[in-house]
Structures are given as C-alpha cells and as structure tokens.
Amino acid sequence: MHDLVPMTALGASHPRSDTIGPVTITESPDWALASVAARLGQEANCQTALEKGLGVKVPGIAAYVSAETLAAFWIGPHVWMLEASYATRPDLAVQIKSACADTASVTDQTGAWVRFDLTGESLSRVMERLCNLDMGKLQPGHARRTLIEHLSCFVIRHAESITLYGPRSAAQSLHHSLITAAKSVF
Fold this sequence. Notes:
Shape: globular
CATH architecture of the largest domain: 2-Layer Sandwich
Structural class: alpha+beta
CATH class of the largest domain: Alpha Beta
CATH topology of the largest domain: Gyrase A, domain 2
Oligomer: single chain
Number of domains: 2
Strand content: 35-45%
CATH superfamily of the largest domain: Probable tRNA modification gtpase trme, domain 1
Helix content: 10-25%
Largest sheet: 6 strands, antiparallel
C-alpha cells in the first residue's frame, strides 16, 4: 500500500502564508471547483438549474455571486466556474452535474488551479504591478480573467480582499510574482 501524503500546490503539507507590510498572501487549497458550460440550445434550462442550485441568479458578464455554501463567477458566454469549501462539498462537480443533468457539461477543476487570497491594505497597488486590471474600477462582486506573468488567471474582487486563481502547474511562479510585487510596494 502506498503512503501518500497530501501536498499543497506550493509543495508543503500546510498552506503557506506570507505577510509583507500590510498585505497577507495566503495559499488556500481547501476549495472545490467545477466549470459549467451550457450545452447548445440548453442555455436557459442550464441557467435555471444553476440558479436553483446556487439559490441566487447566476453571475452575468465579469460578475461573481456567493450564496451560503456555493459561489460562482462568469468565465465566458454561458460558462461559469463554481467554487465551494472542499469540507462542505468535496464532490462539487458530481452535485452540479446531477443538478444540471443534460443541460450542461460539467468538469471538475479542483486539481487544476491554485488559489491565493490577498488581504490587507493597498491591494490595488500590489495588483497594478501584476496585471492590467484597473483595480479601482473592479468593484466587489466582480471577477475578471487576466494575464499575470504570462499565466492566465482569474481575479475576484471581494469587499476587503482579492482571490486569485492561477494554473496549479505554475503555482511556484505565481507565488513568486505575488511576493515580488508586494515587496516592490512595501
């Protein structure tokens, strides 16, 4: 029998957290992700099924919505990424596929992305060194896809924090970029 030990995307047994000045960058591995793409001709039915599962309207263009145990953000026309705490929904993709049935193609994305949460003051100053998003205009409840160090990433703006999803295969590079940007500000 194998003695497998779970590791975070940064290669440790526990999530990494770095504080630079007033900003804290935290690796957040305990999130389940699933992408949902409405099938051709089933867009309205898919949206209805998702809204029933979410308990709120599905997010529109560049938007992010959050319900009690489930959140979603728009990633393209009739395509959304859903997120939930892994502790509450470890089988998120299976649950969403069951809810959407044949109206959507659902793919488990949990192992494909690394999540970093940025908290503290002056987050806009850090982000302006990383990407071309105008964080002053990116209001809470919005999500955008952008390039950070040639990596396609999702940036979600919350009231007092920012969530960033990047490719898990480039977690070390993305983390290095975040640390370097924060150090350049503070």
